[in-house]
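Ticket reopened. Same input as before:
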Amino acid sequence: MQVGKEKLLWMYEKMVQIRYYEETMAAVYMEGKLPPAIQKGLAFDIGAGPVPGEMHLAAGQEPVAVGICAHLSDADTVVGTHRPHHFAIAKGVPLDPMTAEMFGKVTGLCKGKGGHMHLFDSAHKFSCSGIIGASMPVACGAALAAKKMGKNWVAVAFFGEGAANQGSFHESMNLAALWKLPVIFVCEDNQWAISVPKTKATSIEWVADRAAGYGMPGIRVPNNDAIEIFEAVAPAIARARRGEGPSLIEIKTDRYFGHFQGDPETYRPKDEVQGLRGNDPIPKLAHMLQEKKMLTTEEDAAIVLKMHQSVDQAFAFARLSDYPKAQDALQDVFVQGRSDARAVA
Amino acid sequence: MKTNRILTMAQAISEGIAQEMTRDADVFVMGEDIGAYGGIFGATGGLLDQFGKDRIMDTPISETAFIGAATGAAAAGLRPIVELMFVDFFGVCMDQIYNHLAKNTYMSGGHVKLPVVLTTAIGGGYNDAAQHSQCLYGTFAHMPGIKVVVPSNAFDAKGLMIQAIRDDNPVIFMYHKGIMGLPWMAYFEGSTNAVPEDAYAIPFGQARIAKEGTDLTIVSISQMVHKAVLAADALDAQSIHAEVLDLRTLVPMDTEAILKSVRKTGRLLIADEDYLGFGMSGEICALIAENLDTIALKAPIKRLAVPNVPIPYSRPLEQFVIPQVSDLVQAAQALMLKKAALRAPL
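Engineering reply: fixed in the latest deploy. New output:
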């Protein structure tokens, strides 16, 4: 499938937006977390500042999110991982409530109850989880629902290469193939499961090769390139929409930041990230678009400005929003309404 | 014992493991990021360099496989220590824990020996939300067949870890992140204390009196012990003298120490970071209720725990659901003003 100019520009815009979002978050996250504002003797305080708790950023992995989501509409489901921002942004989750959620504000997607690993946007059929390998069963369920409802919607489960060694991966692959569910399993192989490299954790080089064992196509994408990913996944999306069942895609991608912000990264060669950044997919796509006369320097500057403004606006919105009331913590364990509504009908 | 050094709880745990590994060639460690990283919370720091990758084994993210493998290796004669980063992650491999590790000894009529130590991090207070902040020691204590160890400080942690490794039964060893003395997370400094260099074991089922008092008893465990001691210090200034008990292990639980203290003070506050319902605090209430023939309560029992909601992310919400020092102080003050409706005859 040849990718048209409109999609190319959309993918470029979204990658610029995601990258700036992650870089902004990396800076904001450090506010209030460093000496001397913290407990004496600490180098860093993970629980301090306006955005506390763990923070997993996806800079470098933008092509995966945009290359896949360029095929999707609001009706399709995406289930992300503990490192979810790029997926959420590419799926269309609005930045203001998403950012407010990470600030723990009442205007957040989840009224401050979820936080950055637990973003839920029902309108855009997006969710994620802090548990490794949790995306795949949930995506199977969304696909099962689409099938039962007679829709040609698809569900995408994103997961890391580390999660491919979870039982949930194998169980979901079999279930989806057996029931011909419209699922696309997308493995983001960034080579690192926190400190453990893929070579020390996985018995084969390509997770995609496991597809054969479940009777579904396995697609290898060796380059962290949005166009390559878009084209490689097209047959899998079409197959799912035709009702012919799932596919497994594996994409070699790059993690520029640590596993979490504040990760000392003592396990990773010092110059690794520098090398990865030398192959940055965003300027490469900009260069290609300019070469093909699809983007002028002025248009590029306008895109960058617009995307940066959208992110800055979201962070301002989050900062200015209120915290929820403490007692709100007791709400939402169960939904409002009659638990027996169906039974009495 | 040789000289005492001041160690963090993380250092004390890894020292205890190292000493047992040196003493007993059957002891080895498996888990995620326990090698080069030294454990995300530092509990295996330095062990890879000392013992090599054949005894300090980084695993794939395959908990059912490696925790189940610990059960199998133990049955075959080894003494595995297996770490699973966060207690919240046990869901994916619970079958291997509660249907196998916890039951095989009993189902075999006692001839299958499973000397496994499961280690895991617990607790919130740093805004890591619902899937990374639970305690869940009550869940493990509820199921028969696993001993449950929840230390509050470095000295206890080393002695309890050595005891856990030497025990011929499954033990879950749960360390609260906010007392490990990590350089990247605020912690209660009372948890970093003097630790003897020599190996020593602390028997399970022996509560420690963290602070003596006469007016009420505060029973707690893990990080909450430090909050209880701070609350008791604040209460001293109001001439309310609280006795703080650190249970140290939930299975077995030192029921005698609880009964003895409550008989003395006549008032009981239970401070717990686990969920309120069907857990540690309820268990202790039942213990008191079953012994009212020998206890004269001066006020009803008060429980402070997470009020049966998942741990929320946002700071004001999380601080509201996890009992804080000020909550303990207020609860203790209220207990002093209350009267029990009925006095049990002595």
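The domain at 208-337 of chain B is CATH 3.40.50.920 (Rossmann fold). Chain B has two domains: 4-196, 208-337. Please confirm and we'll close it.
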